[in-house]
Amino acid sequence: MDDKWIPVTEPLPLEKRQLEGMKVDVLLSPYDVPEAVRGFIRKDHKVFLIEFKYISQEDTIERPQSEHVKLRVGRNSGRLYAIELDLQKFGANHVQLRLEVAEALKNVLTHLVKEPVSPMRATNYKMAKKVVENHEDCILQPI
Fold this sequence. Notes:
This protein is an alpha+beta fold. It has one domain. Helices cover 27% and strands 34% of the residues. It has three helices and eight strands; from the N terminus they run ββββββββααα. The chain has helices spanning 94-114, 122-134, 136-139, and strands spanning 6-7, 14-19, 22-27, 36-42, 47-53, 60-66, 69-74, 80-86. Strands 1-4-5-8-7-6 form a six-stranded antiparallel beta sheet, covered by helices on one side. Strand 6 and strand 7 form a beta hairpin. Helix 1 (94-114) runs antiparallel to helix 2 (122-134). The longest helix is centred in the C-terminal third of the chain and has 21 residues, at 94-114.
């Protein structure tokens, strides 16, 4: 396992909201923004795992997303801590595998943003998607 974390350098995003007829900018909590991300293959289980590290850590629970995708979210916060992709689903060569995993990862994150596991963490899921998009080459390097 490559446990090298990739530092996340994205600035805290502003989210524009309408409150009682006024437009306001809401800053995402630094506790919801990953500090680092990593991707690696768990060879014993033939799983590609993408993990997110935050300022504070907590116990996680597993949430199946589909037959071949599992999410690990914070037990109390609902923050996204990991995405597990079952590599046995992909019966492709090395180059094709990387493309298929990248596509599956984008689909999982897009679905998570549209239908959040925890509606209160929708901005955390958007930030996780942005982090993965910005660091995709490094995250998928083990494949």
